[in-house]
Design a protein that fits this description.
The complex is a heterodimer of chains A (256) and B (585). By secondary structure, chain A is of the alpha/beta class. Chain A contains nine helices and ten strands. In chain A, strand 7, helix 6 and strand 8 form a beta-alpha-beta unit. In chain A, helix 3 runs parallel beside helix 5 and helix 4 packs across helix 5. Chain B is mainly α and 585 residues long. In chain B, helix 3 crosses helix 20 and helix 7 packs antiparallel against helix 10. Chain B is globular, with a radius of gyration of 26 Å. Classes of the chains: A alpha/beta (256), B mainly alpha (585).
Chain lengths: 256, 585
């Protein structure tokens, strides 16, 4: 469902993402980890069409984002770390705008909007202007808008920041449920406990390169550690920093 | 409880609109309508006084410009000058030429901010929406935002022209039609300029800005010189006037869209046998070219917008390194009289300012134009009639005052709002919050006073103005620099809008507009009280003795001017300081 084919992205003389190849299947919950400045956000921005790869291709559902971007973006939903809402729209008007954008017929749109309002408990404030929302309310509204058109691919960047424990629980259940129902979930997060609990496969990037990719067990083997994901993550990234000249070593389909 | 009823257009209307305009265009039109409606309703419900005040002030300005224009056109008509038709034609040509230039640059700047540096466009571009539709949506907003000043200041002039010329009824709807069509042309040109710059020259942005500013200064300097050269005679006789008109021909070229609008409106006003056809011809010319330019621009955006966004995000190095500059170090000794903590805040504001070329480039161009104009006025010295010198020196002081007012309105007023949602950082600093305002006040006066005073003295020396008048001009500029800074800093704090991140929008919003209007009134009042009476006296060509009463009255005027200046300084700053001390985070 998501395919990154030898993707490289340069910012002037510096390379933010180096020859990244990944292939993520439908219904998979894929976690994308890395230290600050590792190239995660750049990769995500290329996956949603906000940036163009310097070389290589990004395909969503078989559609190349460079040549067939509108179709590719129709399949996905993106929840950035700093989500956007129109301050002068109510939550319901925002959801309706999204439904109109994805050409959902009126009756079906009303039904789906009611569903996501229930799912995220928005009823108390959905008819207020979003400028009055707290961070948690904004986050829940943005998630509701991301699901209103039932995307095939859900890309989320740091979704748990600022959420209370109950909202984090709801979010985790939701992400798992989405993946179980066939949606490909691409999760970028620094909350390693959340990733450890949810992810089918995990990729770790550092200095723009993929340093490891696979199930948690495979990552443990690679790191030669039986500890938590945190231990594995630290061991792999520290090793990479120590030997930053190590050659890239993965096709993204399994353990490096 | 709902804030706004969720009203929907009738389905047949929607279906028809989508069929005619396209689904995504209708989507954005509905979004724009909803946002404007909700904004207005919120504003009205929260504080009905605000929108009503804005409307009242707009009526006052509109009425003032209208009355002045009626007087002006009546005067020209009564004189029955041989060149009346040419004078009016030139005035209209220049009006639309100037407006066109303003629209080109303001649309380009607004679009740059809204297309390439806004969270909204990042949101929209990650959705299945065509880039040209997003571009068109932002383009409409930018052109509408750029054009409102014309509606406020240009429309009363043109309505007055129609009334004095006893124009037929169709002149007035034509006015709206001509303007709407005309706005598309400079708007599209500005948008294309923005796309081209972002797509093809982002890596040499600084070089480009310096180059563009230099070219603009040279071209405009040449034009100013030409116009000035045409009037370099003792008497402003018919020959001189004719030469003067000829030098303004750049705005009257048959290929200039501004000339089409001016000619079309003049034809509509004349209402002769062939004039209706001529009006229709010019209207068609303006609209067909406007729509064509719009089409070309949106077509270009379909492949240049995403590319430009990508280039602007990745054109430079991954992390650009910023550090101190010699300018920052130069600022420290200048501000030796300021408390060290306030100085730190000042350096912060200065760094923000110098790192935003879009801001300082505008000041540079405007200031450069004034310097060029003042160089050019050297020709009025010597054998030129004293009455011209008197009027020109008065006009120069007003222009310098306007420069200070524009600088304060555009750059100083938004400073407090631009602290934005991170304002709590400043709120938690171990300093009296009043220092934040004093810091911005010192920043503003330091940036304006030296330059404005130098310009004033330069202008008066070039014109060989008597020392007493020069001293009064200096005093006027001093009062203006302090008063306008106090107004902008005080009102900027009192009417801060922490949600808005675009300084242009803060300056053009309610608070910014109110600040500009009060600033202009203050400028007129200060000039009228301190320098105005002396210029009126001088206009009498030194033939009338001033007398003791005259000296006392003019002295009182100076004192009153100083009083107005003190009020402009103290009252807004007090209000601003009270507001910032009360503010919760």
């Amino acid at each position: 469902m998501i395919k990154l084919d030898h993707v490289t992205k340069s910012y002037g003389p510096k390379t933010a993402v180096k020859d990244l190849t990944l292939e993520i299947a439908a219904g998979e919950l894929f976690a994308f980890l890395g230290p600050n400045g590792a190239g995660k956000t750049t990769t995500i921005k290329m996956m949603v069409g906000l940036l163009l790869p310097t070389s290589g291709r990004v395909l969503i559902g078989g559609h190349d984002l460079r040549t067939d971007g509108e179709r590719a973006r129709r399949l996905l939903s993106y929840v950035p770390d700093q989500p956007f809402l129109y301050e002068k729209l109510t939550g319901r008007e925002f959801l309706q705008f999204i439904a109109d954008m994805y050409e959902i017929p009126d009756d079906e749109a009303r039904r789906r909007i009611d569903e996501v309002i229930d799912l995220f408990n928005l009823a108390d404030f959905v008819d207020d202007l979003t400028e009055r929302y707290s961070h948690g309310m904004r986050q829940r509204t943005v998630f509701a808008s991301a699901l209103v058109h039932q995307p095939k691919v859900l890309i989320v960047d740091e979704p748990t920041v600022g959420l209370d424990p109950r909202s984090v629980r709801i979010l985790k259940d939701l992400l798992r449920k989405q993946a179980d129902e066939g949606t490909t979930v691409f999760l970028s997060s620094h909350s390693l406990d959340v990733v450890e609990e949810l992810a089918d496969r995990i990729a770790i990037v550092d200095h723009g390169r993929l340093i490891s990719c696979g199930t948690l067990q495979q990552l443990r083997s690679h790191a030669a550690s039986d500890g938590s994901l945190e231990d594995v993550f630290l061991r792999l990234t520290e090793a990479d920093t120590a030997a930053s000249t190590t050659a890239p070593a993965t096709d993204g389909k399994g353990l490096v | 409880m709902a804030d706004q009823p969720h009203s929907e257009s009738p389905s047949w209307f929607l279906t028809l609109s989508k069929a005619l305009l396209g689904r995504q265009t209708v989507l954005f039109l509905r979004l724009q309508t909803r946002l404007v409606t909700n904004s207005f309703l919120t504003l009205y419900r929260q504080s009905p006084v605000r929108p009503l005040t804005v409307v009242c002030i707009m009526f006052v300005i509109f009425g003032f410009v209208f009355l002045v224009s009626v007087e002006g056109f009546s005067f020209i008509k009564l004189q029955q000058l041989a060149l009346t038709d040419q004078i009016v034609g030139t005035v209209l040509d220049l009006l639309f030429f100037g407006l066109g230039l303003m629209l080109v640059f303001s649309t380009a700047l607004l679009l740059y901010a809204s297309l390439f540096a806004s969270a909204e466009t990042s949101f929209l571009l990650s959705r299945p929406v065509a880039a040209d539709k997003v571009f068109a949506y932002k383009f409409h907003g930018a052109v509408a935002f750029s054009s409102w000043a014309f509606l406020l200041l240009g429309a009363p002039v043109l309505i007055a022209y129609g009334l004095i010329g006893e124009a037929p009824w169709h002149y007035y709807p034509c006015l709206a039609l001509f303007f709407a069509g005309f706005a598309l042309l400079p708007g599209s040109l500005g948008a294309l300029l923005c796309l081209v710059v972002v797509n093809f020259i982002p890596r040499q942005r600084k070089t480009l800005i310096i180059l563009a500013a230099t070219v603009a200064l040279l071209v405009l300097g040449f034009l100013v010189y030409q116009i000035g050269d045409a009037t370099q005679h003792n008497n402003f006789d018919r020959e001189t006037a004719g030469r003067f008109m000829n030098r303004l021909n750049f705005a009257r070229s048959p290929l200039a869209p501004s000339h089409w609008v001016a000619s079309g409106l003049r034809a509509a006003e004349r209402n002769g046998p062939d004039d209706l056809g001529l009006t229709a011809y010019y209207l068609a010319l303006v609209w067909s070219n406007g729509l064509f330019a719009y089409l070309v621009t949106t077509w270009a955006s379909s492949f240049l917008y995403r590319r430009g966004l990508n280039r602007i995000a990745t054109g430079g190095s991954l992390r650009r390194r910023y550090g101190g500059s010699r300018l920052d170090r130069l600022l420290a000794p200048v501000l030796v009289f300021v408390h060290p903590r306030t100085r730190l805040l000042l350096v912060k504001d200065f760094r923000t300012f110098r790192r935003d070329p879009a801001q300082w480039a505008q000041v540079l161009i405007f200031s450069g134009l004034l310097v060029l104009a003042f160089f050019n006025i050297g020709m009025f010295s010597g054998d030129t009639l004293w009455v011209y010198v008197n009027n020109i020196s008065a006009g120069n002081v007003l222009l310098i005052g306007l420069l200070i007012a524009v600088y304060n309105g555009r750059f100083i007023f938004p400073l407090m709002s631009l602290e934005g949602r991170k304002f709590w950082i400043l709120g938690l600093l171990p300093i009296d919050r009043a220092q934040l305002l004093w810091g911005k006040f010192v920043f503003s006066t330091t940036m304006t006073l030296g330059f404005a005073m130098a310009l004033t003295l330069f202008s008066d020396v070039m014109l060989r103005v008597p020392w007493l008048i020069t001293a009064l001009h200096g005093l006027t500029v001093l009062v203006l620099a302090f008063g306008l800074s106090g107004l902008s800093v005080g009102l900027g704090s009192l009417l801060a809008d922490f949600r808005e991140t675009n300084p242009s929008k803060i300056a053009s919003g309610f608070g910014g507009t109110l600040n500009s209007i009060i600033g202009l009134l203050f400028l007129l009042a200060t000039f009228s009280l301190i320098s105005g009476p002396w210029h009126v006296f001088m206009m009498l060509d030194n033939t009338v003795a001033i007398g003791v009463t005259g000296w006392v009255e003019m002295g009182l005027g100076v004192l009153a001017g100083l009083g107005v200046g003190a009020a402009a300084l103290v009252v807004p700053l007090r209000l601003g300081i009270q507001s910032i001390r009360r503010r919760e985070f």
